[in-house]
Amino acid sequence: MRASQCQQKGIDFIVLNTVYSRVLRFQVKGSRPYPPSASEVHREGAFKYTFWFNNFHDRYHRGVADVYLLFGLYPIYDTTKNIKSRTKFWDSFALAFTDVEMGDFLDSIRTKDGQKHDRFFYIGFNDLTEVIVTRSRRDRPNICDHLSAKRVPELLKQVR
Q: Which of 3, 49, 100, 144 would you call most buried, defined as having the most Cβ atoms within 10 angstroms of its Cβ?
């Protein structure tokens, strides 16, 4: 079979436990980093890293994937290092949401008046101890509890 014939709409990869015949289906949404503008750099509350995601609320259907990952790759701003350095120059983050959590999260992404679903949401941080939804959520929640490193043990229990 060709690779295009093996693809499942809405699924990017699976984790399979062949002993117990259990599967976790993952969908990944990614964003590149958007550096702060010159006017934002010195503004209080501005974040070093901002990621812009589409709100796929209208295309979301419960039961398509078990886990949704919001992924971002970003350069580590260190003037003493460059891309040829042997030390780490890039870093990444992934936020993991269960199917139900993702549906609830997407539903909470609203325009300023709260009447409609907003088309986008931003996630910003300076470091991964505080990951904030900065657009489309007036309450600006810290969603660092969704970092995949914190969620992996819980998720792996589902395939044991």
A: 49
Q: Do the domain assignments include residue 3?
A: no
Q: Is 117 helix (H, G, I), strand (E, B) or coil?
A: strand
Distance of alpha carbon 124 from alpha carbon 46, whole angstroms: 8
Q: Report DSSP letters for 7-58, one per residue.
A: --TT-SEEEEETTTTEEEEEEEEEE-B-PPPHHHHTSTT--SEEEEEE--GG
Total domains in the chain come to 1
DSSP state string for 126-157: SSTT--EE-SS-TT--B-GGGBHHHHHHHHHH
Residue 156 within any structural domain of the chain: no
- What is residue 78's predicted lDDT score, i.e. its pLDDT? 66
**Backbone φ, ψ for residue 49 (5° rounding):** -125, 130
Helix (H) or strand (E) holding 102: helix 99-107
The CA distance from 69 to 98, in Å, is 9
Q: Is residue 5 part of a domain?
A: no
pLDDT tens, position by position, 22-48: 999 999 999 999 888 777 777 777 898
Q: Is residue 142 part of a domain?
A: yes
CA neighbours within 13 Å on the CB side: how many for 112?
Answer: 0
3-state secondary structure of 99: helix
Give the range of the structural domain holding residue 117, as residue numbers without chain letter.
27-149
